[in-house]
């Protein structure tokens, strides 16, 4: 089970990195590196689709509330491999530097989002890395 979760995390990171390289093309080396904050959720079976969508919508509002977020994207798992270990939603939050992440984590808007999330979260995985 831990192996499938680790594989899912690796595959998610590879996919995100591949998309980023494709988006910036040959200029990737001239761009400054971004600190990526990958968050993956699995929701409780008791949570309705509307409640889950509310969590997604509230997370998507954070870039408008927290200036240190320089990029944001999210999506729902659609891998046919079945290795997501119950994780269904992936969010990618990017910061210019560690100071930006340090502002984000205790930010009142982030804390308010966590309170919306808590009643519905079954599991979560967070991975931070510097984009290469």
CA-based gyration radius: 15 Å
Which runs of at least 5 residues are low in confidence (pLDDT < 50)?
Answer: 17-30
The gross shape turns out to be globular
The number of helices is: 5
CATH topology: Alpha-Beta Plaits
The biggest beta sheet, please? 4 strands, antiparallel
Domain count: the total is 1
> Within the largest sheet, what's the order of strands?
2-3-1-4
N- to C-terminal distance: 29 Å
Keywords: Signal
Domain Stress-response A/B barrel: 35-129
Protein name: Dabb family protein
Subunit structure: Homodimer.
Give structural notes.
The protein starts with a helix and ends with a strand. About 11% of the residues have low confidence. The protein has 5 helices and 4 strands. This is Dabb family protein. InterPro entries: Dabb (IPR013097), Dimeric_a/b-barrel (IPR011008), HS1/DABB1-like (IPR044662).
Protein topology:
Layout: H1 2-24, E1 35-43, H2 49-60, H3 62-65, E2 69-76, E3 89-95, H4 98-104, H5 108-117, E4 121-130
Antiparallel strand pairs: 1-3, 1-4, 2-3
Keyword list:
132 residues; four-stranded antiparallel sheet; 5 helices
Structure in a nutshell:
This is Dabb family protein. This protein has 132 residues and is of the alpha+beta class. It contains five helices and four strands.
């Amino acid at each position: 089970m831990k192996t499938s979760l680790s594989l899912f995390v690796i595959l998610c990171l590879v996919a995100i990195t591949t998309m980023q390289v494709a988006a910036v093309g040959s200029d990737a080396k001239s761009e400054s590196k971004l600190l990526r904050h990958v968050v993956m959720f699995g929701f409780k079976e008791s949570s309705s689709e509307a409640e889950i969508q509310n969590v997604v919508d509230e997370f998507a509002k954070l870039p408008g509330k927290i200036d240190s977020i320089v990029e944001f994207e999210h999506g729902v798992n659609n891998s046919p491999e079945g290795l997501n270990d119950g994780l269904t939603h992936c969010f990618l939050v990017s910061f210019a530097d560690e100071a930006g992440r340090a502002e984000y984590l205790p930010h009142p808007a982030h804390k308010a989002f966590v309170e919306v999330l808590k009643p519905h979260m079954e599991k979560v995985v967070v991975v931070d890395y510097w984009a290469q």
